[in-house]
Amino acid sequence: MTTLRRRLRLLLRMLAIQRALVRHGLDEVVWRAHLLRPIAWVRKILPRRKPRQPLGVRLRLALEELGPIFVKFGQMLSVRPDLLDPEVAAELAKLQDQVPPFAGALAIEALERAFKRKVGELFAEFNATPLAAASIAQVHTARLSDGQAVVVKVLRPNVAALIARDVEVLYAVARLAEAYWPEARRLHPREIVAEFEKTLGNELDLMREAANAAQLERNFAGSNLLYVPKVYWDYCRPNVLTLERIFGVQVDDMPALRAAGTDIRRLAENGVEIFFTQVFRHNFFHADMHPGNIFVDVTDPLAPKYVAVDFGIVGTLDERDQNYLAENFLAFFRRDYRRVAALHIDSGWVPPGTRLDELESAVRSVCEPIFNKPLKDISFGMVLLRLFQTARQFNMEVQPQLVLLQKTLLAIEGLGRQLYPELDLWTTAKPVLEQWMRERHDPRTQIKRLIEAWPEISEDLSVLPRLLHRAIRRAEAREADERRARANPHGRGDTHAVVSARGRRLERAIAGASLLLAGVIWSGLSEPQWIGWLASAAGLLLLALARRD
């Protein structure tokens, strides 16, 4: 019965989505839907009606009606005016901070329930009229008892239940795609929905957002690139976040930025530098950098400073993905297509049996035409998409951990081009990438990593004497067995062979482990490093031989 109810609820929600699209004049989308394809012929006999409002308005209204998940989809589209009709992009941009608010009385009720105190006791002033409203929460201005101006973010009522409902719809659509669309199996739609669900779940915990803000503030402490407002922890709860109030110009308000005399080119270049610094140096990036979340401090217009808000979505990558992305970008702009192909194979993004020369040729045929454009017109985001599209014919699987990065990179590029169309992203990003690669391979960095890992290494070293003692005892026992076997030549020969084989395996394992450990320590602490690598390789070879015996 529970399963039946769930399926009925999903069906009703899908029909509600179709009804909302029809109501706002988006009939074309509806008739392409899976549910209505069998009766698509009906459309031909229905009367045609002319939409009364522009497409962008109709699309925005439909997304607002459908709820938080669909609003977020519109936000994602709005940051790429180069991919959409300008009027549509401008209309969808209103989803960033012009979502209809909920009643201020409900916000006050949520605050009093969270803190078990009256709002008047919490704040010296609290404005019940929201400053801004978004798909998941809205923001009110307030003042603490010491006079500090703050903003208070409060989750929308019942938002968790609404998101859970629509995530269930997305899972249903993903299952349909996997069942009826062969290409979907490679794209892993259910995994992508799971990543999206995880991201939305993080946004619903405002204590997590507060922690994200604090981490970002530490990362850019003393920086002239980005300012992060202070968190007031005593005024935070899972559904309430209180931050220092900041004052600045919204990043897409070009008339205000120009009126202040802002160095627009420097502002655009700083945005790109901030992104690549977060991804590669800090490995902690703000992943929701749409214009509604970014302001500019124009106190010094010739050295404008970004101010970020809304830290619900952040991203990280493991070191392997960081390294492969950086090397892919560098190899691409050096036109080293063989290196690009090798990176795809080494990273596991394509099957290990893929022929290097065939992948290299495919990458070259797609990427070489891009270099007919000026560097300022080359998009990092589109480079990634092109590379992944090229690898598709080699059965490359979608990497869910990179989806958030691609989305953020496309958003940053869209914003940068909007600010300064002549922006050369490569010139701006290349020094950050090259410096990161140099630091990554610097011997001092290797030593630092070894020192950081020393507690674990020292723990392993502390048990090494005991292991060696046991090995020696076993070797002595083996020699005794061999002596007994020689003294009794009429005994079973296979016993002697087994004992000898075990002894050889044990000796090789001990020697291999010792060489490997010595090589790692040497390469981290001594020069030349090649001696350490050679010893490590010899140790691995001995361990492999011991395992094979």
Q: Determine the number of helices (DSSP H or I, runs of at least 4 residues).
A: 23
Tell me the major beta sheet: 5 strands, antiparallel
Query: How many beta-strand runs?
Result: 11
Amino- and carboxy-terminal Cα gap: 58 Å
Q: Specify the overall morphology.
A: globular
Strand content: 5-15%
Please give a structural write-up:
The chain contains 23 helices and 11 strands. It has helices at 2-23, 27-31, 55-66, 68-78, 86-92, 104-115, 119-122, 159-180, 184-187, 189-203, 206-219, 254-259, 264-282, 319-333, 337-346, 356-367, 380-392, 400-419, 425-441, 443-452, 454-487, 493-525, 529-548; strands at residues 125-126, 132-133, 137-143, 149-155, 226-227, 240-244, 249-250, 285-286, 294-297, 305-308, 314-315. β2 and β3 form a beta hairpin. The two termini are 58 Å apart.
Q: How would you summarize the topology of this molecule?
A:
Layout: H1 2-23, H2 27-31, H3 55-66, H4 68-78, H5 86-92, H6 104-115, H7 119-122, E1 125-126, E2 132-133, E3 137-143, E4 149-155, H8 159-180, H9 184-187, H10 189-203, H11 206-219, E5 226-227, E6 240-244, E7 249-250, H12 254-259, H13 264-282, E8 285-286, E9 294-297, E10 305-308, E11 314-315, H14 319-333, H15 337-346, H16 356-367, H17 380-392, H18 400-419, H19 425-441, H20 443-452, H21 454-487, H22 493-525, H23 529-548
Parallel strand pairs: 5-10
Antiparallel strand pairs: 1-3, 2-3, 3-4, 4-6, 7-9, 8-11, 9-10
Helix pairs in contact: 1-3, 3-4, 3-5, 4-5, 8-10, 13-18, 13-19, 14-15, 14-19, 15-16, 16-17, 17-18, 20-22, 21-22, 22-23
